[in-house]
User: Fold this.
Amino acid sequence: MAESDPKRIMMWTLPRASSTVLLKCFSYIPQFQIINEPYNSAMTFGPEGFRKTGHVNGIKEYGDFLDSVKKEIEKNPGKYDHGWDDEKCTYDWVKNTLEGDWPGKKFVFCEDYIYPISTKKDKVPHGFTHTFFIRNPTSVFLANRIGTMENLPSEVAAKFDINDVPSWKIYPKYGYGELLDLIACLKDRDMVQSNPIVIDADDLLKHPESIMRKYCEATGIPYSDSMHTWPAGDPTRGPNWHISRGYLAANQIVGFYDPFFSSTGFPPPEDLPTPLPEDVVKLAARAEPYYQELYKMCIKP
Assistant:
């Protein structure tokens, strides 16, 4: 990579950790390139992912949903052309794209999930400052439960138990342990510093000024108070975004990005409901020790 290459930052996280708030925060900074979940796109929509393996989290309706995404793209030619073509979205394509040239950009910021890379660590991009974004397991698994049930037929949702989703069997450390494993692997390769850059969602939402200032200092991003607010709207059509056509079509169907689009600043953390679903309580309890290990590394307010 040439000396004129942009500063590259990777943020590894889990689904429903509220990490997209940082993507919106950085979306309107000039010469900033946002890349949204390319490895997860490879796993979900790409030729090496679910379509090849036939595994869609063990729930048939997930496969039906992916079929509906494909049909949405096919029936609306051109509507999603500002996203990348998922047919080319292999793991190697993602790695090469991330490590490639980004003319006119001073910063490249990529957010992605731990799941697709946990068994393919050789595909982790070089030349990046690797950072990590976490959220307490109860909030993460509750949000995953709600989001999953919203996309399932009522008769399936009525019997849904998040502990039965094979993702948690495939990833026996519930995502949090896999983040710890990735940190250890990157340390062994001298790809991450001895004190990893980790932020917690609740800390960020409670103390955005302090956490953002310290995160920017650690990653080399120039901090500004203007980062705390941004316009409502869809940034994905702008020149600063790179995103999968599959994600764009999926959002058209279920609207999971709508809160992200409508946001104008860091929202306060939400209170957990009582009582909590028993399946969430059980799963969160198993993930909690891994979360606590990660939290020890977090940037503190």
Q: What stands out?
A: The chain has 14 helices and six strands. The mean pLDDT is 90. The longest helix spans residues 278-295. The two ends are 34 Å apart (CA to CA).
